[in-house]
Amino acid sequence: MWDLVNLKGVCTRTVHLPVLERIGASNCSLLVKLPITTNNAEDIKEIRAKLEWWSNITWQDYEVKSLVQRRFQACTASTTLGKEERAEEPETPQRSW
């Protein structure tokens, strides 16, 4: 999630997101709740964002926070998950027919 300055939430109710593995956030300071539950916390492989953003996340369940805390990587906006991946993705070769 990048430059979503008005984003306050991902969903309005608790949902099970079994395929959620990576979270990256940059310039989303109003987003203070994540769609992570005890059901999917173990599936989270990586969370990248600024430490200030991470510190402002509110948790309904501190067990969830403890499960994903070790997956958090503080970084600058330029190294937030996805930015470098998109830069490294090879271009799709042009086909000549």
TrEMBL record:
Name of this protein: Uncharacterized protein
